[in-house]
Design a protein that fits this description.
332 residues, alpha/beta, seven-stranded mixed sheet, 8 helices
Length: 332
């Protein structure tokens, strides 16, 4: 019987959570992995595949009991419901692989590799500054976080299997019962269980990937009927989610103390997110030691002058938008 280690190349496995009827969607990723020298990819299906699985895909067993969301998600759209279920399965998959001592390249099922990503990934080092890792190899390599979200995107991230990353993903898995997994992962990496993991973010990771071609699959009537929206029968029986780390800088609402409901879904609005050690604009991978032929040029260090110029551009863009709205309203 094959194990996830059989899919590894230089100790890295490509891992993805897969939706029901998602086998056709993920085949281009598996094909690109084979072309890049991987023997197969490891997937965590949300439900059992209904068709034969090719050798280039290694599915993990379904979780028992099933990872079902709280009842509120049965009142959401089918898309929101599925995204929530995929979050549970994604962090579970990473935790299992990291615990096996395997490094993980976590990719969304819709992506595919342009070429072998490992030479670029293995070149990644933190900046030389002490607060950014003193040039150490990065344990967590993320895509460039959004300016407003201030999060590491979990659609494409590389994790080295270390004690720090195993603690990071293990805590993220537990907190995902009460929070969006991407928010939990970023918060724990910046200030919590993963605070000892070296980290940086880079445009280079996204440069190794493409979304072409996108495979659209028309679900049959039978598959639509079987893909029913199912939530946990008893929210009270679900695992309780640990609170934010004590050192967090995220502005969780407070009334004397942080408001966190371990038995509910906690939503942190975007304006309440804060930059951290892994997501700051100057926490990019080192532009000297991390240079690779497949990487775009690294941005310059983030300075006060760049910050002021960026804010001025934002103000001017907002002013231009308001002026266009005013003129359109006057013309109407």
């Amino acid at each position: 019987m094959r194990s996830p280690a059989d899919c590894a190349k230089q100790n890295t496995v490509i891992a993805s959570a897969v939706a029901p009827d998602g086998l056709a969607t993920i085949l281009p990723l598996a094909d690109s992995a084979i072309a890049s020298g991987f023997a197969c990819i490891v997937v965590q299906p949300v439900e059992a595949f209904r068709t034969a699985v090719p050798e280039k895909i290694l599915p993990l067993p379904l979780p028992v009991p099933a990872l079902l969301p709280r009842g509120r998600w049965c009142n959401k759209s089918a898309s929101d419901y599925l995204k929530r279920r995929l979050q549970f399965h994604r962090v579970r998959l990473w935790r299992i692989l990291l615990d096996l001592g395997l490094d993980v390249l976590g990719l969304d099922a819709s992506l595919r590799l342009r070429h072998d990503p490992l030479p670029a990934i293995h070149s990644m080092h933190c900046r030389l500054d002490l607060q950014y890792g003193s040039g150490a190899r990065a344990d967590v390599v993320g895509a460039t976080p959004g300016w407003y979200l201030k999060e590491l995107y979990l659609q494409n991230v590389w994790l080295r299997s270390t004690a720090a990353t195993r603690a990071l993903v293990g805590q993220t898995e537990m907190r995902t019962w009460g929070l969006y997994d991407q928010t939990a992962f970023t918060e724990e990496a910046n200030w919590g269980a993963g605070a000892n993991a070296t980290c940086c973010h880079t445009n280079c990771l996204a440069a190794q990937l493409t979304k072409e071609p996108v495979v659209k699959v028309r679900a049959s009537k039978a598959s639509k009927a079987s893909a029913a929206v199912v939530c946990a029968p008893d929210d009270g029986a679900l695992p309780r989610a640990p609170p934010p780390p004590n050192a967090t800088r995220h502005a969780w609402p407070t009334r004397g103390k942080a408001i966190w409901r371990p038995d509910a879904y906690n939503d942190l609005k975007i304006p309440l997110h804060r930059f951290g050690r892994c997501t700051g604009r100057d926490a990019t991978c080192d532009p000297v030691t991390s240079v690779h032929a497949s990487c775009p040029p690294a941005p310059p260090p983030f300075t006060r002058e760049i910050s002021i110029a960026s804010r001025r551009r934002d103000v001017e863009a907002a002013r231009a938008r308001n002026e266009r709205k005013r003129m359109a309203k006057a013309a109407g």
